[in-house]
Write a structure and sequence with these properties.
The structure holds two protein chains of two kinds.
Chain A (H helix, E strand, L loop, with lengths): L1 H23 L3 H21 L3 H24 L3 H4 L2 H6 L1 H21 L5 H4 L13 H9 L4 H22 L11 H6 L18
Helix pairs in contact in A: 1-2, 2-3
Chain B lengths: L1 H43 L15 H11 L10 H17 L18 H22 L3 H32 L4 H6 L11 H14 L11 H4 L9 H26 L10 H4 L3 H22 L5 H29 L7
Classes of the chains: A mainly alpha, B mainly alpha.
């Protein structure tokens, strides 16, 4: 138990510190790298909760794909000119507003719930019994049956977003030569395959 | 705290011992892989390859290593020094971490976790960060281009690797690497899933930045890509990380398609051989294929590389996922049904 507690404090401590660094470092690339560090440690917390499937998916999707694209964009910014003290100060009121809203919501939740960890186990299980199943199996068994509608809906939303961004960035350009591989391969009379005898060469 | 230390001391020491048991053979393997790579490449081109240092040139790689250790570490002026030094460490650490779940024989594995294949997939998708950080922190044009190319390439080919893994998982019904191997007792998966085997092999080449997909470090265009500004030990860390990744991909091909530690036929003289020998032989065979590809195939152009990844492999592997699951479903072959 102590080891579990220690790892919990390690992971959550690193999350807190790196999240703080995300908003306090001046270099945007460093911010993204700290963000990735906090994602990784969040995955560690999932592992402590025995939700190893979620942990791995978090790493694969957020760290392996989303954050890479994020870093990709931020790396190309000219960050030396974009940092300005006044710029940062002008966002403080709105930041405080959002922070107050979050804290208020947390307080409301905490007041309305008996904050006792032992309560969590006796909560009525709304779906089905998962005992003896690995959590990959458990997620799969409800995601494609009970929650198929939401699953499909989120898929459709993502598809629409993808098509939308393609439509927005698509433009016809004049005079671009494209390689059409099938045409190249079917071209007759211009390419000959010749069996070259060793030491004799070939006449062209 | 003292009681805590007493409780966990032996456990921690055992884990460290196991880690060394993975790490030391892995480093030896990398040394042999570097040597084999150069020898095979040389043999294809009718050269001798390394043949001066030690018997048959076997000490060439350790000698190179020593040379790198004693070289000065140059930190470019204007580079982001912290990120610059962390990048190679991350590359090496991640590539070694992935080996924690690789089973070399029935039951011989450091961490036999339920989501082994996802773990390896996750760790290998993190590998791109070492390269991106190296390219950006060098504050130089060629490394930056190399890093951008590499990031786009690795993210693209990860997609098809993911789908190929799904086709294998459909036939196994588990994410555990040991169970994936045991599911191949009757037939190795490269026979029914042969097209996926090819897709996986080529994607593995692209994922590890091996020729013909070594555009991130294409020496005729980008000097040495993301490694351009590195020297001494950090360079060695990159080199080792890269080769450990290559060996990992060979091991993955072995586990997913070539039956892991299982003998080719389950008859007496073959199944008396210990499992890790078969595993090793298969990994060496796949590495030999990697080295031969490096020797034969000219480098791809970047747009061709992207076309292959997105327009050929992605539809193919997506179709394979649908086809495999349909066949398994209609013939009632799916595990756990």
């Amino acid at each position: 138990m102590t080891a579990q507690l220690l790892t919990f404090y390690l992971f959550s401590g690193v999350i807190l510190i790196s999240s703080l660094m995300v908003i306090s470092t001046k270099n945007p690339v460093h911010s993204v790298l700290f963000l990735i560090l906090s994602f990784l440690n969040a995955a560690g917390l999932f592992v402590i909760l025995h939700a190893e499937f979620l942990a791995m998916i978090l790493i694969i999707v957020y760290v392996g794909a989303v954050a890479v694209l994020f870093l990709f964009v931020v790396m190309m910014l000219d960050f030396k000119t974009s940092i300005n003290k006044d710029n940062i100060l002008q966002f403080i009121p709105i930041g405080i507003l959002i922070g107050v809203v979050f804290i208020a919501e947390l307080i409301i939740v905490l007041i309305n719930t008996k904050f006792d960890l032992s309560n969590i186990q006796v909560l009525p299980n709304p779906i089905s019994d998962f005992t003896g199943k690995s959590n990959t199996e458990a997620i799969g068994s409800v995601l494609y049956t009970d929650y198929i509608l939401y699953f499909q809906l989120s898929g459709v939303i993502l598809l629409v977003a993808m098509i939308g961004s393609i439509v927005l960035t698509l433009r016809e350009r004049e005079g671009v030569k494209r390689q059409v591989v099938s045409e190249q391969l079917q071209r007759q009379g211009k390419i000959d395959l010749v069996d070259v005898k060793s030491g004799k060469g070939v006449d062209i | 705290m003292i009681s805590l230390a007493q409780t966990y001391f032996i456990e921690v020491m055992t884990i460290i011992l196991y880690c060394l048991l993975i790490f030391v053979p892995l480093l030896l393997g990398v040394v042999m892989a570097l040597y084999a790579d150069r020898k095979i490449w040389a043999a294809v081109q009718k050269r001798r390859g390394p043949n001066v240092v030690g018997p048959y040139g076997l000490f060439q790689v350790p000698a190179d290593g020593l040379k790198f250790i004693f070289k000065e570490i140059i930190l470019p002026d204007g580079s982001d020094k912290t990120v610059f030094l962390i990048a190679p460490i991350i590359t090496l650490a991640l590539s070694i971490t992935a080996w924690a779940v690789v089973p070399v024989q029935a039951g011989v594995v450091l961490a036999n976790i339920n989501v082994g294949i996802l773990y390896i997939f996750a760790i290998s998708s993190l590998g791109v960060y070492g390269i991106l950080m190296a390219g950006w922190s060098s504050n130089s044009k060629y490394p930056f281009f190399g890093a951008l190319r590499s990031a786009a390439q690795m993210v693209s080919y990860e997609v098809s690797i993911g789908f190929v893994i799904i086709t294998v998982l459909l036939c196994v019904g588990s994410l555990n690497l040991t169970e994936i191997v045991m599911a191949q007792k009757t037939m190795w998966f490269f026979i029914p899933l042969f097209p996926m085997f090819i897709v996986f092999f080529i994607s593995a080449l692209a994922e590890t930045n091996r020729p013909p997909f070594d555009l991130p470090e294409a020496e005729s265009e980008l000097v040495a890509g993301y490694q351009t500004e590195y020297s001494g030990m950090p360079f060695v860390l990159f080199l080792f990380g890269e080769y450990i990744n290559i060996l990992l991909m060979c091991a993955m091909t072995t586990i997913l398609f070539l039956g892991g530690w299982l003998p080719p036929i389950d008859i007496y003289p073959l199944n008396a051989v210990p499992g890790f020998v078969w595993f090793l032989l298969k990994v060496i065979f796949v590495f030999y294929l990697f080295a031969m590809v490096k020797a034969f195939v000219p480098r791809y152009r970047y747009d061709q590389l992207m076309r292959l990844g997105w327009k050929v492999f992605l539809p193919l592997s997506l179709f394979a996922v649908v086809a495999t699951s349909s066949i398994l479903f209609f013939f009632n072959l799916a595990p756990g049904m």
